[in-house]
Design brief:
Layout (H helix, E strand, L loop, with lengths): L1 H21 L21 H16 L5 E2 L15 H11 L10 E19 L3 E3 L3 E22 L5 E15 L2 E4 L18
Parallel strand pairs: 1-6
Antiparallel strand pairs: 2-4, 3-4, 4-5, 4-6
C-alpha cells in the first residue's frame, strides 16, 4: 500500500509541474489582470479604421518641402492617384461597413477623370522654423463615374442598380518650395553653416 501511495503522490507532483510549466493551469506568476488577462475579440471594422487612418497619415496628410523652383522649368505636380481619390470619396460618401445579407452597397465600373483647376506659386515669404519659402498651390477636380449597386435583404430582398452615378471630389496638393541657395557657400551673402 505504501508503494501505491508513493506512485500516486509522484504522479500528482509530476502533473503539477507539467501544468505549471506549460501555462495551461490557473497558476499565475506576476501581476494578475483578472478578466483583462484574456484576449478580447475586436471587430475588423475598428482594425481597418485604424489601418486606414495610418495609411492616410503616411501617404496623404503630410506636406513636403521641396527644393527651389528653377527658372524656366515647368511646374510639374503629380495628380492625385486613384487610391487617393477613392479614399476621399469613401470619406465623403461611405459604402464600406454595410451589414452582410441585410444592406450592402457596391461601386462597380469606376472611371476617374482628373483635371487641374489651379497651379500657381505665391511670392516668397519667411516662415518660422522654415526660412524663406514659396507656397505652391495645386488644386485638382476629380470626377468619379461609377455604377452603384445596392443589395437589401430584409424585409423584402431586392437589388437596385444606378448606372449613372457621379461624384466630384476636390483635392489640394499644396506644398512648399525652398527659396534661394539651399546650400550656401562662402561669399554668397548667407552665413556659412556651422562646422560639424
Amino acid at each position: 500500500m505504501g508503494k501505491k501511495s508513493t506512485y500516486i503522490s509522484a504522479g500528482f507532483l509530476l502533473a503539477a509541474v507539467i501544468l505549471s510549466s506549460t501555462g495551461c493551469g490557473p497558476v499565475v506568476f506576476g501581476p494578475n489582470l483578472g478578466a483583462l488577462g484574456y484576449p478580447i475579440p475586436i471587430s475588423p471594422y475598428f482594425q481597418k479604421k485604424e489601418e486606414d487612418a495610418f495609411w492616410n497619415h503616411k501617404r496623404y496628410d503630410r506636406v513636403p518641402v521641396l527644393g527651389p523652383l528653377q527658372a524656366g522649368a515647368p511646374e510639374i505636380v503629380d495628380a492625385p492617384s486613384e487610391d487617393e481619390v477613392m479614399r476621399q470619396l469613401e470619406k465623403a460618401r461611405p459604402v464600406q461597413g454595410g451589414i452582410p445579407l441585410l444592406h450592402e452597397v457596391q461601386r462597380n465600373h469606376v472611371r476617374i477623370v482628373v483635371e487641374s483647376t489651379q497651379n500657381s506659386v505665391d511670392a516668397p515669404r519667411v516662415m518660422p522654423l522654415m526660412g524663406p519659402v514659396q507656397l505652391h498651390h495645386a488644386h485638382f477636380k476629380c470626377m468619379v463615374y461609377f455604377t452603384e449597386v445596392t443589395h437589401v435583404g430584409w424585409p423584402v430582398p431586392y437589388t437596385t442598380t444606378d448606372e449613372d452615378c457621379q461624384e466630384v471630389i476636390y483635392i489640394d496638393h499644396d506644398h512648399l518650395h525652398m527659396v534661394g541657395n539651399v546650400n550656401p557657400g562662402p561669399g554668397t551673402g548667407y552665413p556659412n553653416p556651422p562646422p560639424r
